[in-house]
Amino acid sequence: MHDVLTRDFLIQASYFVTAVLFIFGLKRMSSPVTARSGILWAGAGMLVATLVTFFYPGMTNYPLIGAAVIAGTVIAWWSGKRVAMTDMPQMIALFNGMGGGAAAAIAAVELYRLSGGASSGAGDEAHTLGVTTTTLAVVGGIIGAVSFSGSAIAFGKLQGLITRSIRFSGQQVLNVLILLAALVLGGLVALQLNVDARVVTAFFVLALVLGVTMTLPIGGADMPVVISLYNALTGLAVGFEGFVLNNAAMIIAGTVVGSAGTLLTQLMAKAMNRSLGNVLFSGFGDTGGAATGAVTGSLKPIEASDVGVMLAFAQKVIVVPGYGMAVAQAQHKIWELCQLLIDRGVTVRFAIHPVAGRMPGHMNVLLAEAGVPYDLIADLDEINAEFETADVALIIGANDVVNPVARTEKSSPIYGMPILNADKAKNVIVIKRGQGAGFSGIENALFYLDNTRMLYGDAQKVAAELIQSVKALG
Fold it and tell me: Which of 124, 157, 390, 474 has its C-alpha lying 20 to 30 A from 5's C-alpha?
């Protein structure tokens, strides 16, 4: 008896330590200066929670669990080292989906046991599940399954495996019918009115299909919000399954991830001046759609040598990075260029829009990787007033986040979206691969303004040419 009490105390104490490490880690992640240590703190919390699980009452199959932990660790370490920073959004979507899938798998195990579809020993224990616990398993199961399949589609879109958004008449009605059918089956299982294994299977199949049909119509330009939403759903699913298993670490981790993901999703939707419903159901942001919002005027190209002179003799330059910089992996060359300008006495700032890139904080991570000091990086609210005093706004692969139609054209899908006021700079230089519209298919009026010049080419190659141009001036 004494040994049991001691074990239970140590388990609960470990979960308390886990909670503290998670919360402090998340707090430190709120600043770029302390984010790295915050990740280590949270990782330590996850390590504690994983180790103490081996001492949980009734735990069996230690060799299988150990093998899974080792395999997962090796895969995560290898992929973390190998995956390029430009592909990090896809990796986040994939790993996030795995979390949702794991939560759904826990629910499936419990519900199949309840239906008598598992081994007799586990099934006997599962038959004692109350309605409340079963309901939590069902709720966590449907949320986790939707997050799993939805994240898989998001990965496919970001990776380029799915090149167009699939839409058809009555699509939202179909989604509602699938959801209602899944809820009905889930309700039957939760109330233990019909827990036949076939009903449980149909429930999970419908939940997985719902994640696919919800995500397929959403355009690639909206994927950052979708990834954030599914991250929140994964956290909620894990939290619900934590209650099912009476596992405090899962409850804590799921609650923290779910609440943080929900807040981030709301902030990103606000940054786009759109509701979450509009993101999910409007069909905006299609990577395969035709360009909309045509503007008048002409694109005015410029040579790298002329831009180099303009930058070298400027007093203030504001750099606006976008996904084009990430694709070209040009962040190191851009920072090298900026260092040359700083050495010449030019004031250089970096302006980051909340939804620049393909995931939250994507541009910040890229710039940090290149060694850009944190005090040179500013968000939209901090930097917008400075564009009027800037001699040059250097746009690198950014599009919608600097499109002035968001202020003026009510018919535009991005009308009302807060943008970086790059058009108010004395000169605007846009580094762009070609003349096509952006990822969302909306023509950018900024490119046609009198003070804008287009510098065509791969961002890394163009940056190298600008560096040579500045160096040639002595």
Answer: 124
Go through 402-415 and write b for each residue having 16 or more CB atoms within 10 A of its CB, e for each that does not: bbbbbbebeebbbe
CB 326 within 8 A of CB 366: yes
Question: How far, in Å, CA of 41 to CA of 46, rounded?
Answer: 9
Phi, psi of 349 (to 5 degrees): -130, 155
What DSSP letter does each residue of 301-359 carry, written as one string?
A: B--HHHHHHHHHT-SEEEEEE-HHHHHHT-HHHHHHHHHHHHHTT-EEEEEE-TT-SSS
- Phi (first) and psi of residue 63, to 5 degrees: -60, -40
pLDDT tens, position by position, 36-54: 899 999 999 989 988 888 8
Q: For residue 170, what are the contacts with CB-CB under 8 A and spacing of at least 6?
A: none
**C-alpha count within 13 angstroms, C-beta hemisphere, residue 409:** 17
Residue 347's DSSP bridge partners are 316
In the numeric block, which tokens belong to residue 173?
Answer: 């009605």
Asked if pLDDT for residue 124 goes beyond 70, the answer is no
DSSP-assigned letter for residue 379: E
**pTM (2 decimals)?**
0.80
- How far is Cα 258 from Cα 236, in angstroms, rounded to an integer? 5
What does the H/E/C string look like for 175-241?
HHHHHHHHHHHHHHHHCCCCCCHHHHHHHHHHHHHHHHHHHCCCCHHHHHHHHHHHHHHHHHHHHHH
| Residue in the block written with tokens 């942001």 | 285
CB 429 within 8 A of CB 395: yes
CA–CA distance, 271 with 201 (Å, rounded to integer): 40
- Any residues with CB less than 8 A from the CB of 409 and at least 6 apart, and which? 293, 415, 445
Task: Give tens-digit pLDDT for 405-433.
Answer: 888 888 877 888 889 999 999 999 999 88
3-state secondary structure of 55: coil
Residue 387 contacts residue 320 (beta carbons within 8 Å): no
Contact 271, 355 (CB under 8 A): yes
- Residues 255 and 378: their CA atoms lie apart, in Å, by 30
Report, as residue numbers or ranges, the catalytic residues. 400
Q: What is the mean pLDDT of the chain?
A: 85
Q: Distances from the Cα of 102 to the Cαs of 98, 235, 239, in angstroms?
A: 6, 11, 12
Phi (first) and psi of residue 313, to 5 degrees: -105, 15
435-472, pLDDT tens digit by residue?
655 555 678 899 999 999 999 999 999 999 999 999 99
